[in-house]
Amino acid sequence: MRYIGSLCNTSAKVAVLLTAFIFLTHVSSAQNVTLKHKQITLSEAFQEIRKQTNVDFIIKTSQLDKVRPIQNIDIQNKPLKQALEKLLEHQPLVFTIDNGIIVISDREKKTPLAPTVQKNGKVEIVGTVKNDGNNLYGVSVKVKDSPSIGTTTDGNGRYILVVPTNSTLIFSYVGYANQEIAIADKRRIDVQLSPDQSLSEVVVVGYGTQKKTSVVGALESVKPETLRIPTANLSNALGGRLSGVIAVQRSGEPGADGASFFIRGVSTFSGATNPLILLDGVAISKGDLDALAPEVIESFSVLKDATATAVFGTRGANGVLIITTKTGKDLNKPRISARAQSQISRPTSIPKFVDGVSYMEMFNEAVTGRGTGEILYSQDKINGTRLGLDPYVYPNVDWYNEMFKSHTINNELNLNVQGGGSKIGYFLSATGNISNGLLRKFDLNSFDNNVSVKRYSFQNNINVNLTSTTKIALKLNAQLRDYYGAGVDAPSVFGDIMNANPVDFPIMFPFTGIDRRDVQYGGKAGGTVNNGFINPFARMVNGYQNGFQSTLLTTIDGAQKLDFITKGLEFKALVSFKNWSNTTTKRTSGYNQYMINSYAPDPAGGYTYDLVMVGQPQNLSLGTETGTSGDREIYFQPSIEYNRTFGNHTVSGLFLYNTTDFNVNNPADLISSLPRRRQGITGRATYGFANKYLAEVNFGYNGSENFATGSRFGFFPSVGLGYVLSNEKFFTDLFPAVSNLKIRGSWGKVGNDQIGGGRFPYLSDLKLDGASFTTGIDQNTTYTGPTYLQFANPLISWEVAEKKNIGVDLGILNNKFNIVFDLYQEDRTNIFVDRSATIPNVFGTAGTKVYGNVGEVRNRGFDFSLEWNKSEKDWGISMRGTFTYAHNTVLKNNEPAFTKYRNLSQIGYSIGTNLGYLAERLFIDQAEIDNSPLQQLGGFVAPGDIKYKDLTNDIDGLNLINSDDRVRMGYPTTPEIVYGLSTSINYKKFDFSFLLQGVDRTSFMISGFHPFGNQGVRNVLQFIAEDRWSPENPNIFAAYPRLSKLDNLNNTEASSYWLRNGAFLKLRSAEIGYSHKFARIFLSGYNLLTFSKFKLWDPEQGGGNGLGYPTQQVFNLGVQLRFN
Q1: What are the tens digits of pLDDT across the range 512-529?
Q2: pLDDT tens, position by position, 90-148
Q3: What's the per-residue H, E or C state across 459-509?
Q4: Nearest-CA neighbor of 832 among 762, 766, 887?
Q5: What's the predicted TM-score (pTM) here?
Q6: Domain spanning 4-106 has what CATH number?
Q7: Cα distance from N-terminal residue to C-terminal residue, the chain
Q8: Right CATH for 122-195 from 3.40.50.620, 2.160.20.10, 2.40.50.140, 2.60.40.1120
């Protein structure tokens, strides 16, 4: 034999006989070929292909003698494999790729098997099973309803099987997708098996990718298209879609309405609870994540156990979220897509307040009940307000409706372009979003005080194949954010409503001036704001603030194959630069408030009144405050990787170094001016045998600036094992319906060096200029001298998370139904705690930080997901359910030794569990009060007040209730259970999807809402008017106790009376769409329905008085366009 590469150009039919295989250049089926001829011989075609691809062929001369010229061949930039298939389509030849060389051989002649017709209702079926023309040996052929009837294919891929008539055959083979074929009247069935795509599916793991079948760690991935929901923040799409992720949305304020999320709950109280978020290998903030458009995401993975996260060392203790963005593709023409949508947004629920008449009647009831003789609202004022005689003399202000709109309109536009060729690829994306708030604009202002956030994000990726072995990629992520809002923060605007009742003053008196400086706002003397009380509307409209933020993340990464050293070896490097800057401007002014001094009816049926200013005249000019801040970070990450398969043995390895340098652009002091630096090395080794037995070992060796020499570096190893039972022949014979069953387990340690924002705890921090310190048992002696802001602890070291995980992956019916279940335990030790609270101040340490490794927490739980997919010709359905349970227990904490009152200890309870008094009910009468333990909570105790349980009488025998009687109660504020069900249905051109998401085992305290308050002006929630204790309604289980004009501490202390169940179920999102050619129109909604026992406000907002910025219900109309 000879190589065709040595043929003379003048010869059209000369070939060379080869006597041995020669291993030359590597062949990649991804190389492209172009051929266009009216007529060409096969040898000439092979010569052209060799020139274009540098590929070598092996072919016998005798094989060339029997081929005919090829007519009208037109192959335009097709992969090598497709080109060869086209060339040999009508020839008696086939090709294979063997060790990088194209081998041409004779096409096998089909010799028909002769099936035999059997008696007794049975028939003989014969046939072959192949893949890409290659015979498959050992394929299982069984009768679907009678698995005992079966056989396997021989070395030529042939089988013969006697089966009952009208049977259905199941063809199954390890690594290939099952096929079911009804025999009907057929007697010969030839089958082409295709590789099981789930086996070749690649998932992103720490610092690389792995085949999904070889993963032994606990990870969860989600399709990027499922993250597209009608809100501006990507984090709101996580809850209920990803098992192991606990996510709740506490606010609906534009720009601050992203979800707080945790991976497998909370395992520390050191302040560092957020997971690590990586975008294309570089750490980003949750704000950066929220700004991403789903269209730019290629893959989205959550890493949960130690095997998955140990490689990140110091950064992976709380789990890792990995996002990779799309890159360019080799396309004939650019792929362009766009999305435009407009939204109507309104509050899901708002607190309801009483009207003015109810307020005054309840106020009089509260004053009368105390018997203090304080001034009541007159019946004349109550009647005048009820009749609406005059809005200024008898105001009845609904502050909420006067200050906030019922809805707002938001818009978003996204544009993407993807394309490229064999050498260069590109992906470009731009997204613009405008989110508006609910605050009303004041017409007299030259500025708009409403909240508005304009956000623009760009993702530009370019990937270049410099050679067949060298690749480089440039990725640029840019985010611009322009914020505009009232002079006071939006949550404070809502909170002000609670501190202004409806009847004491109007918003403003009739305007007769020229501009905003002439407005006479309503007010009342006696408060703390310029001797007056807050006018919420005046505070909202007298000023504005705006801020501009920019984030630029530039990443360059490259890869160089080192096959010349050994096949499968590759060098990679990544370097990134991130810069964040923020500029703010705040302009606010004072405002003058007025109150009616005297009034009288006028002949026209109205009222005349004279006004007097409350307090002193204010400066009405807009003052200006400006500020700038920012930071920058450089990250460098070189690595060596190795991946190789030797027969049934698959091995891989990774060795990686990383270093980070973080600097503040405008440092405020010496400490913040010092760079924050980290460095570390990472290693990973994996082994797999026959896709059945899997092993993985990882380690991270990391250094941190926060620890002294000797403790600065930490070693964090992990190990994982997996066993794929479904690849065992005995298992497939016993359970043919099970297409995948993998059992896996892992153990490892992960570190954390984040000390709640503090730095250098092994060093002391002293203040020398004008400093002093105070000592003494009663803190009554002050000396001039240095003030210790922080005491040194040279022994402080890593917070360590030891993680254990056992998991099962189950696929049924060719993986149409999948279950992933994980059971885990995490023991967090050496938790960072500021110990100053338990060090007696007699040493002069009040306010001095003293860090130590004293905390321990155990976090246990499980999470699982179930997925079912079915697709037919005209319709398809996909359902996915997730469930996450995460329960933590504090084992050790920095607290006093509660040897006497153990009920006060946090040990044995979860982080975030409420501490309060155990309420029994309301007191019936004075006799019961006199015969009950003395309640020393403060305030005057009377019938209708809360009765508490004495928990310590058996301990101290004092027969009284004080702060020692508090106990841990309810569930933590962070939900322990999160679950979800998502469904997607398509029928022809229509599609419909929805997500149900719920949380459970969470509690919160309602507070800050008690009527009137010490200044007697606090507003009253409607539920109090509807169900409160009174002499006329002496219900000892009423929703609210006896009214009091002043804060009655006996009734306002945190207790089980105010503890509420925070569980809820929401129809989180739903969408219906219609597609036609290149367009799709869709209608969607977010936060559509809420089911909960708690009715006062959206339970997802949590405790307090419900007067934060409310979460939003969104209705969205949009269109998607796609041009290929």
Answers
A1: 888 889 999 999 998 888
A2: 777 888 776 567 878 776 654 444 445 555 678 889 999 988 777 887 788 999 888 78
A3: EEEEEEECCCCEEEEEEEEEEEEEEEEECCCHHHHHHHHHHCCCCCCCCEC
A4: 762
A5: 0.82
A6: 3.55.50.30
A7: 46
A8: 2.60.40.1120
